[in-house]
């Protein structure tokens, strides 16, 4: 595989969850924030136990852009989630065994294990699914799901967190967002890094109960070589409604050690840095 193709693999592996991951990261960090005057009139909020979401995420490089979309469900009480990601043909062909045709990848998180169903790999590994058991140091970050559950039901906490970290907040007023009457807030912050800074622009839209309806994030590419731009949108519906998250049977799963996955991602990351 050429260096150009290989250097995109770590990006391909993560871009599918950027829309959700960026939002969850912001929400999770905000979970412990106090409520501000914007929604002080609201009754005390309750952590969301389940949610459905859809997302679109794009990563832009110097010469090309990778865009993926998907849907999923999360069960915060049982620390479980499922995700279906639609890969465009240009990305799917980079997967071992893949062809120049769109492909759907399914993922399930249950407890400390991630399950992946990649159709292109099935003929190579002999079973539909692979699994990776996360080590303790990674599982420690799973506590973010508890914070996310709290923040999804209290968007004001996200507002407070962003402003406490020097983001400029601007009201977007009210609008119909994903079929819901929602109130929006826009945040702008500067991300400092070696060689300069980049501007992060984000917006959150909440319904009348202060529950998150939509989140958007945009980070333009920087001036440094290899800098990537990111845009992502995640929509949330059906909070606290029943969800179905099914773990594949062991007969259909091949386990891969976490150390192997980490080594491959690290190798790919080094190639990206050198390119």
Which helices and strands occur, and which strands form pairs?
Elements: H1 3-15, H2 18-30, E1 50-60, E2 65-75, E3 80-87, H3 89-92, E4 103-110, E5 113-117, H4 119-125, E6 129-133, H5 136-139, H6 144-152, H7 155-164, E7 168-177, E8 180-193, E9 196-206, E10 212-219, E11 229-237, E12 253-255, H8 258-274
Parallel strand pairs: 6-12
Antiparallel strand pairs: 1-2, 1-11, 2-3, 3-4, 4-5, 5-6, 7-8, 8-9, 9-10, 10-11
Helix pairs in contact: 1-8, 2-6, 2-7
Strand portion = 35-45%
Strand order of the largest sheet: 7-8-9-10-11-1-2-3-4-5-6-12
Overall body shape:
globular
Helix count, DSSP H or I runs of 4 or more residues: 8
Give a written overview of the molecule.
- The protein has about 280 residues and is α+β, with helices and mostly antiparallel strands.
- It has one domain (about 5-155, about 225-275).
- Helix content is about 30%, strand content about 35%.
- The chain contains eight helices and twelve strands.
- The protein has helices at about 5-15, 20-30, 90, 120-125, 135-140, 145-150, 155-165, 260-275, and strands at about 50-60, 65-75, 80-85, 105-110, 115, 130-135, 170-175, 180-195, 195-205, 210-220, 230-235, 255.
- Strands 7-8-9-10-11-1-2-3-4-5-6-12 form a twelve-stranded mixed β-sheet.
- Strand 7 (about 170-175) and strand 8 form a beta hairpin.
- Helix 1 (about 5-15) crosses helix 8, helix 2 (about 20-30) packs across helix 6 (about 145-150) and helix 2 packs across helix 7 (about 155-165).
- It is globular and about 55 Å long.
- The two termini are about 15 Å apart.
């Amino acid at each position: 595989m050429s260096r150009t193709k290989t250097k995109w693999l770590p990006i391909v592996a993560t871009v599918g969850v950027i829309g959700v991951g960026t939002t969850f990261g912001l929400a999770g960090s905000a979970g412990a924030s106090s409520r501000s005057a914007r929604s002080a009139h609201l009754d005390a909020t309750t952590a969301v136990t389940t949610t459905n979401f859809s997302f679109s995420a794009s990563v832009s490089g110097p010469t090309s852009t990778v865009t993926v979309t998907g849907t999923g469900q999360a069960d915060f009480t049982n620390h479980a989630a499922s995700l279906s990601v639609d890969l465009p043909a240009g990305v799917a062909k980079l997967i071992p065994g893949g062809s120049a045709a769109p492909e759907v990848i399914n993922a399930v998180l249950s407890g400390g294990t991630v399950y992946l169903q990649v159709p292109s790999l099935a003929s190579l590994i002999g079973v539909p699914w692979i699994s990776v058991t996360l080590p303790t140091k990674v599982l420690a970050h799973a506590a973010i799901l508890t914070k996310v559950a709290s923040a999804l039901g209290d968007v004001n906490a996200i507002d407070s967190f962003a402003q406490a970290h020097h983001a400029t907040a601007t009201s977007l007023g009210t609008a119909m967002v994903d079929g819901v009457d929602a109130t929006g807030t826009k945040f702008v912050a500067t991300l400092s890094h070696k060689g300069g800074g980049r501007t992060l622009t984000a917006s959150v839209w909440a319904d009348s109960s202060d529950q998150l309806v939509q989140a958007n994030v945009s980070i333009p590419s920087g001036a440094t070589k290899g800098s990537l731009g990111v845009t992502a949108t995640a929509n949330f519906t059906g909070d606290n409604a029943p969800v179905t998250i099914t773990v594949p049977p062991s007969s259909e799963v091949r386990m891969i050690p976490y150390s192997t996955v980490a080594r491959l991602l690290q190798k790919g990351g080094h190639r990206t840095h050198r390119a």
